[in-house]
Amino acid sequence: MSETPQQPEQPENDQAAETPPSSEQPKLPKSLTFRITPVSLLAVVAILVCATPLAWAAYPWGLLIYLLPLGLAWWILRTRTTVSPEQVAVRTALSGGRFGWDEIASLRLDENRWLKAVLTSGKEITLPAVRVRDLPRLSVMSGGRLPNPESQE
């Protein structure tokens, strides 16, 4: 009894052979959001606990001390920068704004290590929670309008 050699099994539909290799760019997310880490809220809880004896010692006006940790929590939760392929949206505790990638002339490093967008009008807008390490992601989201520092030598 001799067995006839069999060919390896082939998939029934040759989709892999029919589709040419894709040279398209990887699909971008709709947006990226840069925030202050929520772990910072632990500091707010610590301030709240430490302020409690002082607040109750000077009752009722001492309760106003609670406004400090509440304001800090509000700032941490609200401050963010959201970038999409079309625009950049900045939101701080009291204000916000949007501008397109074409309006950005350059980026500048802030003294707080956050980046600032220098607009073509000359106005500088701080990009909260965006740091130098985030430049490659900003470059990808801008569609190449901002140069990628990792690709330059």
Helix content: 25-40%
Overall pLDDT metric: 85
Which of globular, elongated, flat, extended, rod-shaped describes the shape?
elongated
Distance between the termini: 68 Å
How many domains is the backbone divided into? 2
- Share of β-strand residues: 15-25%
Whole-angstrom Rg? 26 Å
Order of helices and strands: HEHHEEEEEEH
Number of continuous helical runs: 4
User: In CATH's first tier, which class of the largest domain applies?
Assistant: Mainly Beta
Structural class given helices, strands, pairing?
A: alpha+beta
Major β-sheet strand ordering: 1-2-3-4
Keywords:
alpha+beta; 2 domains; 4 helices; 4-stranded antiparallel beta sheet; 153 residues; 3-stranded antiparallel beta sheet; PH-domain like; single chain; disordered N terminus
Can you walk through the features of this model?
Residues 1-29 are annotated as: Disordered. The protein is an alpha+beta fold and 153 residues long. It folds into two domains: 32-78; 80-153, PH-domain like. Helix content is 26%, strand content 22%. It has four helices and seven strands; from the N terminus they run αβααββββββα. It has a four-stranded antiparallel β-sheet. A three-stranded antiparallel β-sheet has the order 5-6-7, with no helix packed on it. The longest helix is centred in the first third of the chain and has 17 residues, at 41-57.
